[in-house]
Each structure stands twice: as C-alpha cells, then as structure tokens.
Hints:
By secondary structure, the chain is mainly alpha-helical. The chain is built from five helices and no strands. This is RXLR phytopathogen effector protein WY-domain domain-containing protein.
Amino acid sequence: MSKKPKNQEEVFQLFSKMKLVHEKSNLFENPQFLKWTGAVTKGYKDSLAADMAIALTLAGQRGDEALAKMIVEAKKVSSTKNVATRLDWRRLR
C-alpha cells in the first residue's frame, strides 16, 4: 500500500491502516486524519479527485447523514473549517 494513495481502494486501506475507522469523536481534529487527507491529496494529481476520494471514504464509513453532520460541526472550528468546506462542496456534487 502506498503512502500516497492513487485510487479509492488505496485511500480506504490507508484510512484503515491509520486507525481512523474506529475514531468516533472529532475525526476532523485528529492529527492522523490531517495526515491522511494530506497523503490522499498528494497521491492524486487532481485535487478534485482527491477530495471526492476522501468524501467517498468518509461517507462509506459513516453514512451520508453522519458525514453531513460532521462537516457542519467541523466548519465551526477554525482548524478544520478548510477541509470541511472542501468536502462539503464535493459531497453536494
């Protein structure tokens, strides 16, 4: 598995390897989450595709409704607002 995932399967594998699957609270504030999103962004040549891969992984793990709630809450925190805004825009596409 690559530290810079280039496809959806590798994105999920890295998500699992970084033990984010079991993270219940404040996922967006977890330092591992920030490393994971950074790795996905570096692995994909297109930032739009990277954001979609991140959003698909999170929706697959948490469900669309839970992800929507997470994004709303993350937008209220200055340290997570940027990534939440990017993912919210992608999720709505």
